[in-house]
Amino acid sequence: MQKETAADLVAFLAVAREQSFTRAAAQLGVSQSALSQTMRGLETRLGVRLLTRTTRRVSPTEAGERLLRSIGPRFAEVDAELQAVTELRDKPAGTIRLTATENAAESVLWPALERFLPNYPDIKVEIVIDYGLTDIVAERFDAGVRPGETVASGMISVRIAPDMRMAVVGASSYFAAHESPKTPQDLTAHNCINLRLPTHGGLYAWEFEKAGRELNVRVDGQLVFGTAALMLTAARAGFGLAYLTEEQAREDLISGRLVRVLADWCPPFSGYHLYYPSRRQPTQAFTLLVDALRYRDQKPVRKS
User: Fold this and answer.
1) CA dist., res. 33 & res. 56, Å (int)
2) What is the pLDDT of residues 185-240, one digit of tens each?
3) Cα angle for residues 164, 170, 175 (degrees, 5° grid)
4) Which phi and psi (to 5°) does residue 40 adopt?
5) CA-to-CA distance for 193 and 228, rounded, in angstroms?
6) Strands 94-100 and 143-147: what pairing?
7) What pairing do the DSSP bridges indicate for beta strands 155-159 and 272-277?
8) Which helix (DSSP H) or strand (DSSP E) does residue 251 occupy?
9) Can you point out the beta strands (E) in the chain?
10) Prediction pTM value
11) Residue 243: strand pairing partners
């Protein structure tokens, strides 16, 4: 491969992922016009259009999508290996990119990072908040954090938190005007505060289980948020019921600011796990971070 072609492919990956010449140019440190010219030159040499351009966005064509799927993971592997080589020097260094939910980042990742990072000043950590099941290979993340039961097969999975439970909560002022739900189905008559999943655009269905019976309830209400923090704020103000983890609502439940309902429909489930591709060689910095996050020194397991 010619050096020029390799550089052009890196530029294409940035545009295809960002779906914006402006954001991709800023990421690459070049002008938007230069980047546009690079893409036209690549398309001319290949003899096929890779990008569809409109006034609002840029999106890959069918050929562009195929190229993105095929070369994206390979360039990510090259980046990982180059970073691993840099860590052969005396001090662990490099950037670690993680994707996690807001709650996992606040309750698990940050407390560990607060202790970890001062000891390794050359290690950088980027955390992207995402409630969807992100393809960490395609999106060039080093690892993701999700409940253990949602981790895909073929990944190395390391437990970093204890089991969790969900909780349906509301303020006393709300229950003063509304009868408490006795079953999950009763929630359809309540003003519920929804969470919109940024990755998929849909509303999160509230999940329940009792005596082996599983229920997913699509609730409705006046408010929809993209973060759990705002859901908690609205619930405290009496605007409806929220579906959060026990950890997120713990202080409010202890103080009595919030009241819990349907507790018998919310059994424990697998806590947060850090997961990453089994075929990728971890860098020294990444290995140190995994050790810092590991819960009760659990051994990593491969999802079958």
Assistant:
1) 16
2) 999 999 999 998 765 557 888 999 999 899 999 999 999 998 889 999 999 999 99
3) 145
4) -65, -40
5) 10
6) parallel
7) antiparallel
8) helix 246-255
9) 51-53, 58-60, 94-100, 123-129, 143-147, 155-159, 166-171, 194-195, 206-210, 213-217, 224-225, 242-245, 258-261, 272-277, 301-302
10) 0.65
11) 168
Token representation of residue 282 = 């971890």
Write the pLDDT tens digit of every residue in 13-51. 999 988 889 888 998 899 989 999 999 999 998 999 999
Is the distance from CB of 126 to CB of 95 less than 8 angstroms?
yes
For residue 114, how many C-alpha atoms fall within 13 Å in the half-sphere facing its CB? 7
SS3 category, 143: strand
Question: In the numeric block, which tokens belong to residue 281?
Answer: 């060689």
Q: How many helices (H) and strands (E) does the chain have?
A: 10, 15
Phi, psi of 66, rounded to the nearest 5 degrees = -65, -40
